[in-house]
Design goal:
- By secondary structure, this protein is an alpha/beta fold.
- Helices cover 40% and strands 21% of the residues.
- It contains seven helices and ten strands.
- The strands form three sheets. It has a six-stranded parallel β-sheet with strand order 5-6-4-3-7-8, with helices on both faces. Strands 1-2 form a two-stranded antiparallel sheet.
- β3, α2 and β4 form a beta-alpha-beta unit.
- α1 packs across α2.
- The radius of gyration is 16 Å and the shape is globular.
- The mean pLDDT is 87.
């Protein structure tokens, strides 16, 4: 649990850690913003918590929130606590910690506390492209709240063509003068 298969070309790490570190590096290069500048990060679908762990190593002072299902939050809690991070399930009381939430109500409450902050980042690596279309409608508000977004997606997942969905996000970001790019 939280101990992924080692990458055969670099056994000190895993494919997942390399993949997520690559995304952070590409974001850093593209945005030209130091990851230490972000005070708050919200990640949609955090897997076992690797991105949160990686980001906290880069920026220990960040308040990091993962929105996921309750069951996956429990896995994240176990993994991140094992790495000695301050982790809170369905709480938002501390600073410089990792928060795990699983309800839209809590997610909206979290966003309301960040409303006037400009140094916040939204991360979603593959998670939204694997989310049912009906639930995507419910989370559309997320894209309106973040000037900085790191989103990776699968062009197709379970016969859903995701490209147009993410192209629309890019177009809306460009309308708001946000530097946005689809690769």
């Amino acid at each position: 649990m939280g101990n992924p298969v080692r990458y055969f070309l670099y056994p000190k790490s895993s494919g997942n850690k390399i993949f997520q570190t690559f995304h952070l590096k590409k974001f850093d290069d593209f945005s030209n913003i130091n990851l230490k500048k972000f005070s708050d990060v919200i990640e949609f679908g955090g897997g076992y918590g690797n991105m949160a762990s990686t980001f906290k190593r880069i920026n220990p002072k960040v308040n990091y929130t993962i929105f996921d299902t309750y069951e996956v939050n429990l896995l994240q809690y176990y993994y991140l606590k094992r790495l000695n991070y301050q982790v809170f399930l369905n709480s938002n009381k501390q600073k410089e910690a990792i928060y795990l939430i699983n309800s839209l109500k809590e997610l909206k409450l979290k966003l309301s506390t960040l409303k006037n902050k400009s140094n916040k980042l939204f991360i979603a690596n593959w998670s939204i492209s694997e989310t049912p279309l009906e639930f995507r409608k419910k989370i559309r508000f997320l894209f309106e709240n973040f000037d900085y977004q790191l989103i990776s997606f699968q062009s197709e997942f379970e016969k859903i063509d995701n490209y147009e969905y993410f192209l629309n996000i890019k177009i809306n970001n460009n309308k708001k003068n946000r530097n946005s790019k689809l690769i």
